[in-house]
Amino acid sequence: MSIAQTKRFTLDEYHRLTELGFFHEDNHIELINGEIIEIAAKGTAHETCLRNLLRELPKIIGDRATLQSQAPIALPPNSEPEPDFAILQNRDDNYLSGHPQAADMLLVMEVSDSSLDYDQDVKIPPMLK
Fold first, then answer.
1. Which residue of 82, 83, 84, 102 shows the fewest CB atoms closer than 10 Å?
2. Phi/psi zone of residue 117: left (φ > 0), alpha (ψ -120 to 50 degrees), beta?
3. How many CB atoms lie within 10 A of CB 75?
């Protein structure tokens, strides 16, 4: 039996830590499978791809769906990734009442260069549940 164990957080605990000011506004973190993950800095190729998508996606989507970029998606009980882009069903409240959840997602996009293995093996699986 191991004496040390990793503490895994629920969405409620993660949100409570945020409310208490545990995280700084400039922290780049997300909750994946109950673990608080610090997101690595983005390289120029990643940022260029994001700029290109940001220019083109609104033209394609128009008013038919909601586009969000690098914003949380709640995946109970213990994940809240912030994918590079998500195309969501339109909602009357524009998600003011809460972060989008799996049922709201039409398409999720993660731009990967150095983080491809992590994104495919760890980050994406909670979104598929």
1. 102
2. alpha
3. 22
Burial-class residue 126 by CB neighbours within 10 Å (0-12, 13-18, 19+).
Answer: buried
76-87 pLDDT tens trace:
999 999 999 999
Rounded to whole angstroms, the Cα distance separating 55 from 107 reads 17
pTM of the model: 0.81
Angle at 82 between CA 81 and CA 87, to 5 degrees: 110
Q: Which amino acid is at 86?
A: A
The string of pLDDT tens digits covering residues 31-60 is 999 999 998 888 899 999 999 999 999 999
Query: What's 11-128's CATH class?
Result: alpha beta
Question: Domain limits of the chain?
Answer: 11-128
Distance of alpha carbon 52 from the chain centroid? 19
User: What's at 16, amino acid-wise?
Assistant: R
